[in-house]
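Crash report, auto-generated. Payload:
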Amino acid sequence: MNLLSDPVGVSHYLVVGALLFTTGVVCMVVKRNALGVLMGIELVLNGANVNFVAFGSPVLRGEQASLLGLDGQAMALFVILLAAAEAAVALAITLNFYNNHATVDVDRADDLKG
Amino acid sequence: MAEYLIQTVGLPEWLTWSLMAVLSAVLILNLMAGGALVFIWAERKVSARIQDRLGPTRTGGSFGWLQSLADGIKLLAKEDLMPEGADGMLFRVAPYVSFCASFAAFIGLPFAFDMVGLRLNVGVFYVVAVLGLEVFGVILAGYASASKWSLFGAMREAAQVVSYEVPLGMCIVVPVMLAGTMDLVTIGEKQAGWFTNWYLFHDPFTFVVFWVYVTCAVASVNRAPFDLAEAESELVAGFHTEYSGLRWSFFFMAEYSSMFLVSGLAAVLFLGGWNGPVPLATLAGLSEGTGETTGALVRLLGLANLLGKATLGVLIMMWIRWTLPRLRIDQVMTTCLKYCTPIAAAMFAGAMVWLWVFPGGVLNLDDGSRRPGEIREGWLEGPGGRAPAAATAPASIPAEEAVAEVAG
Amino acid sequence: MMQALVATHTLLAAGSPGINWHGFFFLLFALLACGLALAVVLADNVVRMAFYLVLSLGATAGLFFLAGAEFVGAMQLMIYVGGTLVLLIFGVMLTAQEPFVAIRTSTRDKVLAGVVGGALLAVLLQAALTGPAWSGHTAVDASAGVSQPTATPLGMALVGVRVDGDVASGQPSPVDGQVRSGYLLPFEIVSVHLLVVLVGAAYLARTKRRKSSASVRDEALTGVVR
Amino acid sequence: MSQVIDDDPRIIEFDVRTDEMLVNMGPQHPSTHGVLRLVLRTDGEVVSEIEPHIGYLHRCAEKIGENISARQFIPYTDRMDYLAAMNMNLGWSLAVEKLMRHQVTEKARHLRVLISELSRIASHLVGMGAYGLDLGTFSPFLYAFREREKILDLFEEACGARLTYSYITVGGLTADLPPGWLARCEDFLNQFEPVIREYHTLLTTNAIFVKRTASIGVLSPELAINYGCSGPVLRGSGVDQDMRRDGESIYTAMYDGYAFEVAVMKDGHYPRDHVYPAVPHDAVLGDCWHRFFVRMLEVVQSMDLVRQAIDRYSACKGPLGEPVKVAEKIPVGDVYLETECPKGQMGFYLVGNGTAIPWRVRARSSSFSNLSVLAELCHGCLIADVPAIVGSLDIVMGEIDR
Amino acid sequence: MRGPAFLESLEAAVPGGVVGTNLEAIDPWVEVAPQAIAEVSRWLHDAPETAFDSLQCITAVDWFEPDPKKAAKAGWEPHVELVYHLWSTRARVSLVLKTKLPRWKDGQPGQCPEIPSVVGVWRTADWHEREVFDLSGVQFVGHPDLRRILCPEDWEGYPLRKDYEMPLEYHGIRGR
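Recovered output after restart:
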């Protein structure tokens, strides 16, 4: 199949989702700044969301989408909500970490090392 | 018009559609820019009259009509300064972020029946969400300016706008609940008829909620007495302390257009939108669907109605600004969290109960709206009212296969 | 003239021959989303990272609108972008000082991450491109699809009633004859979860004020007079 | 958790460690009333410490005074409190007259009362308008200036100047009033009286104004006295002191026979000579609201005094009397005299050595002492309160820096 | 309590504090020994019958005649005189304290003469003493933060001294 010549379909969305997901993972790995890691997580969740929406989209899948009904979109909604919640908790942890260590560098969080 | 171009002039279809898109974008943009010019002039005149002055009197005749234009030219000619130590990219991009956010929000706002950039079935939600992005540019500007005053302004704006979105959302939910849809066109259309059909007068709760909305709207667009982000007597000029020239004017335009936007939103949600207090067109037996020319005229009347209401809202904001002192940041937050949010929540519950007790409403003296079937067929239910073809078609893929797909 | 405004909403979905607008906007938003995501990884400054992230998420919201999920798109704009906004603020507050603006990563880590990321991407793309059923476009009437309402069914589903086939009423979906359950339980769980998170986050990052400003003021006054 | 060990009770400690920031407010800032520079140490929006830096407008007025004769010094007093130049002229003239044991004519005495009280109204109008500006409302400022312009018009007719008058001078006044002036002054007062109600509506009783000023910057009477505060700042704290009544005899003699009640809260209420708005519930004696309110009362009080002065002045027959010669010798000795200026007690100290030129000139400025209390008032307040407190002190930098 | 009785109680409270008086002057004054100024101030502030709770002004007068011819006729030795104007808000009376200091400490020009600070008695003395230090060059011992207040921190000389000469240049700005 050829992505460039085909009309936009689920595959296209999956590719975008995969790219977002991968960048998110790389971001989580690469960043030493706790906030950067957090942003990586956001990207990962966002990539997953793209997939959910694509699978549940009636535009992209036509009648096939009705197999999933609203599940795709509802799942995406829940992911968004949980991502927001996760961001809040992660930020609180970062803040606490910053209070204790005066830095947001995650490599310095080695208190549990023997 | 698109059809006219395609059929009569014989333009290729893609060009026509592109032209149409550009045209509507230009219309909205001009509405914003032109509106900002008019409102800046009006602000000067209104403030002058309030303060026992004359205001601009020379540029462009005795009323200073062209004053804002002259100001604009001056701003264009002004040097765009950037402080040393500023984050150059973010500093440059911040005004445009603000401006784009308020521009994009206009896409969802209907100006008259059926006259909307993009009719979304989540229209009101979209408008509020995009409007909330305006704060983003402000925060970027505050951070990127490398000035402490800017940073203070940005932090205040962030705290304020994020907080005020909660009661603002709750206020907006009330008309959405009454209309049963988030589609702004439908919400406006449901208030057709005499002014008693307006959601403002629907029940006592909506009446209160309207004033909470006004408070929150003023706060969320940073107008006095909630203009803490720029608070010139405390923070010099707040987030735009370091801005000058054209970039500054973009912030300015964004401020005025979001003022206009929240006023327009208030008009659609509470004040009947494009429906005048007296249903003139209906009384004359006309409606948007009556015919090409008459329909256009009726729409123009609706447009005038909505613009008038929105302008009135903007003028009231100016009146407030030139009358009241500024609140302190903790008082602004108290107003939001201790007063606006609980009141909005209580009024929401009240309106819900009212709707349950009087499902038909009590003040609907006369339903002077258009007779169904003229044009509203399929419109009142929102853009998805017409059942999509795909939904009616029988399923072609067996369920097992679909599950397998997802799992795979 | 003014119908031009009206015309735009059909424009996106028009799918007129000549230019495939759907494809064009998809390409635009997809490139924006991916490019800005990449920029998040490459940027050093935490505020810029957050800026790119917000734009990336906004572009994704555009993709959602294109896929007909308007409610999710608006939700994405409001919650995700708004939430990240708060993230940005914290980023500014915590790390606006010089030493924290850019914490650099060693090249070794970068290379390693690149390899792992490349491998992951390869696997994911493989999965994305090989699913036969996903690639086929069913050439739906896009204009109808885009404006299909999603907010009401979603809202109904969240409170437990499925308009597309409801388990409570035992009514099968008119489309595929299936009976589906609503999301009342997940919805409630998420609500409680949010509450817990709210309390937890407030506890973790609490601001304790030792002395109220009023008492300090009084003390200062008496101290001077004494 | 960060545990900053602090002995200083003024430090407000948070568990979230936020960094303190030093912020320069001024010398170019909209609400520091001139070239005042305040260095704020802030933790977020909370100000933990504030340090005023002054001297940007220092012109060595005292040194200049040691090189010119006493009457030549009058224009320099104009430039101290340039918003109430008449009162400055009066203070210096009285101090020199005290040393010279010079007695002005009865007519000059009443004219001085008339002019200086009118000047007090003008000064308080600026203070009031600028205070509104500090709190973010622009319109009262212009309403105040509109009325002040009318007073300046009157002054211009009397002495030819609108800001630096040099009208009251050693030994009298430079000129008598032009014909018809008194009638125009009456007209102004009659027109001005109802306008005060507008000010009360826009500011004094405005809910937001009260919220911004009540219980903010509370100055206890002990602290006010200890810091040498004077004028409305002192009276706003409930200290019953007004040099027009309590000062030295050469000054109080000027007000002999005038009926006025000092604008201060006694036994829980302000003078009831006119109808004033009620004190809001959350206002505490000594806060910004009371300082502002005292000024508003003094405007009315000064109007009464002007009316009385008009009557007495027009009853006086005979000449105004000539001021002393420019090169008049000053006797040996030193005197100090404080007069009640709009901003507070302005003191002039003068040492004469028998020549026309004073050996030493000293100007004790009321704003100088009033400003020095700022650091005490701003502990733990918010940034937005700083302009509110500075504005309530109603300072003029020309007078502080001299 | 006026005049002699007041002086007696002051003398009793701070022995050796009062050096001289002039009750006939327009503003009667009491001359105080420089080292006793803080004690005298404390007593004046605290004693209930006097209660000079307010310090209005501190002035330094430089008694110095640069012209040697005039100096011979002056009739006084060069010195710096500090004048404290006190005010009692309760009794509504004023009091003038004077104290004489040498122009320079140990006779070395540039060395400011020293006197105890009265900041502990009246907080307003903080800025007033700073101003006197700034313009007239008197060192107040015990002042918490004795810096220049009106002149820039790096200004040289004490402008209100009679022998003060404006610097030729200040940071590239011509002075004379």
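Post-recovery validation: Residues 25-77 of chain B form one domain.
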